[in-house]
Design goal:
This protein is of the alpha+beta class and 330 residues long. It has ten helices and ten strands. Helix 4 runs parallel beside helix 8 (277-297), helix 5 (172-180) crosses helix 8 (277-297) and helix 5 crosses helix 10 (308-325). The longest helix is centred in the last third of the chain and has 21 residues, at 277-297.
């Protein structure tokens, strides 16, 4: 930090653990009046996770100067002799994550329906703004392979499934064949998050709702930003008043805008058409089911991974049902 000329030279460094898993650990660093956050793979993470960390760094650095809410890019270090792994420092976000409030929204969003609706619209706005980033001008060429993005999706993830396959998943053949025979109405390459949902954003404190940052860029790439839209909305109801429809696994959607209203807001912010949303919903459900299947096959005694079983079958059945019922012809 001193070599990079960061503030606080000579002051003691205080580190506080924030969160972590098998791929990343996150600590809050305070030195004098300078606060930052370090993101680093744990020692047991695969060797190529160092490359993933630097890829994330490239994205948040590329977001500097854009209107996408993001953590500030402070400094990065590829030299593993410093801390044992590659790492980067990003700005500290003084806000809150929906993951810290799984038992209910914090005040005033817990009892103010209008304020709560703003959380949803802000969520849609985040990827709407992200889709508008001039990724070439921001130095992100080579981050992904946007050419032929949709031509590769089915083949890539079908091969992945065949490598891990230990069971048949009902509806997979139907959804796969539908995706092989359909494409979006248009395809405008852009920067995408790759795992966009309430779990991967932070909000500023207080009302009205305002995104503070999009976080966790492990799956970030240049591809089709509207897959982020499908990912965000794959379990989002159209009828918010239907019994049980406004409750998903970790957040309560009651009182929030329905899927059509979310689509309209995304379209307004992004400037993109959303008439082909059913294509992205089928792709998102189908893809997530396959991604989660790997964890389920490795579950062993892990109760969390075991719980993926019914989630996977429900996702694939939902993808197949939509493929069979939609009137989308693209």
């Amino acid at each position: 930090m001193d070599e990079r000329g960061l503030p606080g030279k000579g002051a003691p460094l205080e580190a506080t653990y924030l969160s972590g898993g098998t791929q990343n650990e996150i600590y809050k660093l305070v030195r004098d009046d300078f606060t930052s956050v370090i993101r680093i793979p744990p020692k047991a993470a695969p060797a190529d996770r160092d490359n993933g960390i630097m890829r994330e760094w490239r994205i948040i650095e590329g977001l500097d100067g854009t209107d996408v809410p993001h953590t500030a890019a402070i400094a990065a270090c590829e030299d593993t002799s410093v801390l044992g792994r590659a790492f980067y420092l990003m700005g500290f976000v003084d806000g809150w994550s929906p993951m810290d409030h799984r038992d209910g929204w914090p005040a005033p969003f817990d009892n103010d329906p209008e304020a709560r609706a703003g959380l949803a619209y802000q969520l849609a706005e985040g990827i709407g703004l992200l889709s508008k980033v001039d990724w070439k001008a921001q130095g992100l060429e080579g981050l992904g392979r946007p050419e032929g993005f949709h031509d590769r999706q089915v083949d890539r993830w079908t091969r992945f499934f065949e490598r891990i396959k230990a069971r048949e998943i009902e509806g997979m053949d139907i959804a796969t064949k539908w995706l092989q025979n359909h494409r979006p109405l248009d395809y405008i390459p852009g920067l995408m998050h790759g795992d966009y949902q309430f779990a991967n954003v932070m909000y500023q404190n207080g009302a009205p709702a305002k995104l503070a940052a999009l976080v966790d860029w492990e799956m970030g790439t240049v591809g089709d930003p509207k897959l982020d839209l499908g990912w965000m909305l794959m379990n989002w109801p159209e009828d918010m008043d239907a019994p049980g429809e406004s409750a998903v696994s970790y957040v309560d959607l009651s009182g929030m805008p329905n899927r059509s209203q979310m689509l309209a807001h995304y379209s307004e912010v992004s400037g993109r058409q959303v008439d082909d949303i059913d294509y992205y919903l089928v792709l998102a459900k189908w893809k997530l089911a396959i991604v989660l299947e790997q964890g389920f096959q490795r579950a062993g005694d892990d109760v969390k991974l075991q719980s993926y079983g019914p989630v996977i079958t429900n996702l694939m059945k939902s993808a197949a049902d939509l493929a069979e019922s939609t009137d989308y012809k693209g």
